[in-house]
Batch of 2 targets.
Target 1
Amino acid sequence: MAGIDFKYAVSGDILENYIKGTYKTRTVWERVFLHLKSKGIDAYSPGQHKGKCTTPYVVLKNTGTAGFEGSNQIGSQTLDVITYCPRSNYSDIEPYTVQVQSFLGELKGYIRPTGNITPVILDDSVNGYTQTIEYQTFQRLRR
């Protein structure tokens, strides 16, 4: 899939095979993305969503990998799960974020919440409210 925008590659086959359990994800980000898509969540990579926020959606962002002190083999990778709801629906942001967290709880053997959750803020650039939840996974460092 090198050179293919993942949004378009997820059209049918990859998502269907993920749901069937026959697609092996390549990254933490991809597994979380496909899991949310399989639950009906409108998910995007950073910069992919265009236009104003008219319905709730999620942006997934890999925020980096860090090694554990004293180890060059084991570390953790963090992901930001950024939820969006339209400006006209402030009361929907918290229930939507809780729903996304519930779906991600199904991956508890794979990722875990760090406890870092930002306050709800208004993002005028998309005309919607947003909130970020941080997750992490432990992994071998690539060398």
Target 2
Amino acid sequence: MTYTRKNKGVCSLSTEVTLTDDGVIESVTVVGGCNGNLKGISALLTGLRAEDAIRRLKGLTCGSKHTSCPDQIALALEEALAK
């Protein structure tokens, strides 16, 4: 299942996550933002259970922002799991 979420409060525009039927991350693609860092994060998340990734990423901030691209990934994963 593939789910796309429009990001809010960060430089990146959107996050697309693809999960297996049992909640394992197959891929994460973030449009915009810090390209190299987000490619690295996406590579590290591949193969993890979505719940584990959410626990690690949710609530992380970027500078003075109340969110971050990793936090937005966590929100996209939560929304995908709820579908």
